Amino acid sequence: MSASDEGNAAPAGYAPHPYVGGRTAALRALAAWRMRWPGAPRVIVLTGNPGSGRTRLVTGFLMMCDPGHRKQLPLDDLDPATVPPDLPAPVVPSPAGRTAAQMLWMISDHLGLNADRDDDIFTELAAREEPVTLVVPDVDQAGPVRAAHEPARVVRDVLKPLAATETVQLLAEVPRELAAELAGALPAGQVQIIDLDAPEWADPKGLVLHAETALTPEAGAPDLPYTTDPAARRALAEALAARADGNRLTVRLAVQSLLLQPAGFDPADASQLPGSVGEVLDLHARRLGADPRALRLMLAPLAFAEGEGLPVQLWGALASAVAGRDMSRDIADGMLLAAPFIQPVEPSRDEDPDGDGDGAADEATEDGGAGSGADGRTLLRLTHPGLAEEIRSGLPDVRDAQTKIAMALLEAVPQQDWSRADPYIRDHLAAHTLDAGLLPQLLTDPGLFAHADPVTMRAAIEAVPLEQLGAPARTYLRTAPLLTRSQAPAELRAAFLESAFVEDGLAPYAEALHTLGFSLPWRTLWSVPLVGVRAVTTGSLPPQDGDGATADAADPGDPDGRAAGTAAGTAQSPAPATADSAGPAAPASATTAPGRPVAAFLVPEGTPGSRTVPGPDSDAPEGSGRALLVHDLLRPGYVDADPAQVQLPSAQAQEAAPLGLSRGADYLRVWSRADEEVVAALLSDTPFTGADLSPDGVLVVATARGVTARQILAAAPAPAPTVPAQRTGTADSASSDGLEGDHS
């Protein structure tokens, strides 16, 4: 349909869509797509320049697709060919602020798909008997970090596979640079590109109507000769539309500008009518007697703002940083100058920012500081992404401007204490440094790792090539899925990271987290990267009697291993040892003197350093025993000792233990026997294969990655006389092997 066909609606007496105000040709195409009209494509790709009205068109179309909203529209007055049939509302997964993975699992959850992997989602969709209608708006706003280029990932990883699924009817609104990639993956008959700036989809009459409506007193315009006189209003609307060359954003900003400051505006002077968004800025500044460059410098921090918007408290400092001079007076005196281009934002919090959380960490509550604007402060942003793009493109050096913003944000952190930093800085500094090319240098601060929003931090780090990341950043990256899935507050994020640093041999980073004011629930004592551990237990070896039975390679200056209470590390590989025939570990007598605390691991036979302990029948054939490794409980280091000498806690010690252990499929909870309160919760991104809690509160956990010991730091009160009701969960091992479980 050509632009001339747009006018056919008016002679026929049809009213324009009350929200869209035109776009008849595009609405007809969308309605035909929705009703699956013969010859209509299965996939429509809607595109256009920034400010072309893509979002407004999709919103107006969805109004007619929603059964509840369409009852409020005068559908009988509209062109019947533009009205979709009364069907159930399509699925509308918004990519705004979300990653491709979040968006994909949002679709899966909405449709109730039985999927464990990304590919399973598309398989499940393809197997459905009834087609699924999806409308995906605002792809250009995808991702929590602008410089991470998430829109391209959404097209590649989500929209292209959806478009290739025959049971999916898809309408996607995408930037022009991605439209051809999405459409090119399909045969010509299945896909149609609607480019709102192309002549066949242009809507010059609709744009005039858009301008004319905005100029009416009913829309809030002041009483002026060209707003109250219908003929003058129509003439100005036609002039604005013609000069804007079809761009709705240009017309909208021009009207806001002249209505806010009409003094000096002559509608008969064509030189005062803007032809682009950039000309709107410049003409507005000149009409107010200001330097256009000063206006752009004022707005520059808002053009680079991440998330929902920039806290007003940071605006002046960042504008001064970009300008290289003090801009505080410009901003204080220039609110009228900036008013048409900025808007306040009511901050909101996403209940599940990662999109795939299952809430397994029941103890984890939202961190009050995680997320800009959570404290009710005023946030500001530009009125349209296209305006931000214009301002950024007009700067002489975009990376230099972003570098100045990042440095100013970093300097605004009081004494580099992230707990006192503005929430915006904590959550979005990584995004600014990514755009400035400085992110790898920032990723060495464990305090920032713990305090920053893990969704935005993860997205920023993932945008950096892996070879450019240092060891701490790689540790964060592998831990990030756990941080986002659990929605853990900063303190629990710090605890997870503390263990991860020890697991990766970065003990100084783990120790640093204990100096930053967090009340961590544990201190990670050691970790060994040991594959194949089936069960773990804690116990003790008898006191040394001089026969060398418990000699090991540990530090001779610390024979009792208590130094592990203040130092963390990764244990050395076990030295090969010869095993004597011995029976299973026995419980310690109540009168036995305290021995050396140890942990024993059940490992595959042949594991270097392990000793094989036969089963109860000493005549059993070779290979029927159990291979065990013995490790010091309180510090790094394997113990060269006979596993048969390991004594389990006595019944008295078990009953006197102040803490208990409960286990689920992917979580562990340590609770106080006195009041049944959880004192520590541990999640894992790999299944637990074993867990045990010593009477002294050392939690030893085995996963597919290895074995880690944590000293629970919570001070537990005196034990209660009864077993807590919440002591539930699966058994620690399908086959306990006599080693596994909570001895309390």
TrEMBL record:
Q: Bias category Polar residues: which stretches?
A: 727-736
Start and end residues of each stretch annotated as Disordered = 342-378, 539-623, 718-744
Task: Tell me which InterPro entries the record gives.
Answer: P-loop_NTPase
Question: Biased-composition ranges for Low complexity?
Answer: 542-594
Which superkingdom is the protein from? Answer: Bacteria
Can the keyword ATP-binding be found in this entry's annotation? Answer: yes
Q: Does the keyword Nucleotide-binding apply?
A: yes
Its keywords, alphabetically, are:
ATP-binding, Nucleotide-binding
Q: Where is the composition biased (Acidic residues)?
A: 349-366
- Name a GO molecular-function annotation: ATP binding
- Record protein name field: ATP-binding protein
- Source organism per entry reads Streptomyces caniferus
